[in-house]
Amino acid sequence: MSMRTPLSKVRGFGSAKEGTEHFWRQRVTAIANVPLIIAFCWLIISLVGAAHAEVVATLSSPLTAVLLALIMASAIIHMRLGMQTVIEDYVNGELAKIVLLLINTYFAIFIGALCLFAILKLAFGG
Amino acid sequence: MYFHHARFAHLVRANQLKEIWMATSSKGNRPLSPHLSIYKLIPTMVMSGLHRVTGMALYFGTLLVAWWLVAAASGEAYFDFVNGLLGSWPGRIVLLGFTFALVQHMLGGIKHLVQDTGRALENQMTTRLAKLHIVASLLITVALWAIAYAVR
In this structure, are residues A55 and B79 in contact, taking their beta carbons and an 8 Å threshold? Predict the structure, then answer.
């Protein structure tokens, strides 16, 4: 007699507690990153050597601000997933691994919050 | 390290590799898979490793982008200070490395997406793609900087 609940059998994740979400999210953000990073390169090249006022003016245009926010969101989710894989691959100690995975998550959220606040502040008035 | 001629490494039988690895492992007698020091470096391996290295570099490179955005949002004085640092020669070298990491990682990622569909996985093809990958990464990096200097 199996002690597993019907739901857990149907979901079929076992002790890993998740299925292909990590793999899939890595691909979803990777595909999004291609056009977004191209746009980012374009933006940065157009701002090379620009004075503060010009940078603020450019980054406060709605399309640029939204695109920049999407770039940072997609890139930061992608980099967090990537670093998670690296930590899981190379860090063998259970405690060290959990601590590093937590730091990875907090770091990604902190950087994301900084970028988002900066982008919104620039967009709403420099 | 044990093979003066690394290109013969593939001729060594798996059980010999295991013996060597166990004898040299710092954790005593635990059997571990042979790693980088055992295999001959081939283009696909180098580019796969580099993809991971550039990914890690970009992780910290994102800090630079965040810093630059925060500087822009903080006001003119701080922005000029950060821009000055990034525009200095050491700053430019870091940004050049950042650009290369971005281009290399993106091209590698596109290659991975294609290979996820089961395409371009033949031996000759993967080697050719690895060589194309490094050449294209360098060329596009140089091209982006040339454009940046030209439009400035």
Answer: yes
| Residue from the list A27, A52, A83 with its beta carbon closest to the beta carbon of B79 | A52
Instruction: Say if residue B75 is in the same domain as residue B33.
Output: no
B73 touching chain A per CB within 8 A: yes
Amino acid type, B115: Q
Query: Using an 8 Å Cβ cutoff, are A69 and A116 in contact?
Result: yes
Token pair 């294209």: residue: B136
Contact status of A121 with chain B (Cβ, < 8 Å): yes
Each of the 126 residues of chain A gets a pLDDT tens digit; together they read 778 888 888 877 777 777 789 999 999 999 999 999 999 999 999 999 899 999 999 999 999 999 999 999 999 999 999 999 999 999 989 999 999 999 999 999 999 999 999 999 999 985
For residues B130 and B138, give the distance between their C-alpha atoms in angstroms, rounded to a whole number.
13
Task: Residue A108: count other Cβ atoms within 10 Å of its Cβ.
Answer: 21
Q: Are residues B21 and B53 in the same domain?
A: no
Instruction: Please tell me whether residues B47 and B99 are part of one structural domain.
Output: yes
Q: CA separation (Å) from A33 to A27, A30, A43, A79, B81? A: 10, 5, 15, 11, 29
Measured over the CA atoms of residue B92, residue A77, residue B53 and residue B114, the dihedral's sign is negative
- Structural domain boundaries enclosing B15: 1-40
Residues B47 and B115 grouped into a single domain: yes
CA–CA gap between residue A116 and residue A113 (Å, rounded): 5
Task: Please give the structure tokens belonging to residue B150.
Answer: 């030209």
The torsion angles phi and psi of B119, rounded to 5 degrees, stand at -95, 165
Domains and CATH numbers, chain A: 22-123 (1.20.1300.10)
Candidate from B52, B62, B106 with C-beta closest to A34? B106
